[in-house]
Amino acid sequence: MTAPTPTRTPTPRKFLGRLSLPERTFVAEALRAETVGGVLLLVAAITALVWANTPLGDSYESVRDFHMGPASLGLDLSLQHWAADGLLAVFFFVAGIELKRELVAGELRDPKAAALPVIAAICGMAVPALIYTLVAVTGGGSTNGWAVPTATDIAFALAVLAVIGTSLPSALRAFLLTLAVVDDLFAILIIAVFFTSDLNFAALAGAVVGLAVFWLLLRKGVRGWYVYVPLALVIWGLMYNSGIHATIAGVTMGLMLRCSRHDGEEHSPGEHIEHLVRPLSAGLAVPLFALMSAGVSVSGNSLTDVFSKPETLGVILGLVIGKAVGIFGGTWLAARFTRAELNDDLAWPDVFAIASLAGIGFTVSLLIGELAFSGDTVLTDEVKAAVLMGSLIAAVFSGILLKLRVRTYQALCADEDRDEDHDGIPDIYEEDNPEYHLRMAAIYEEKAEQHRRKAELAGASRDGGSGPA
Question: What distance in Å separates the CA atoms of residue 352 and residue 461, rounded to the nearest whole number?
Answer without folding.
Answer: 59
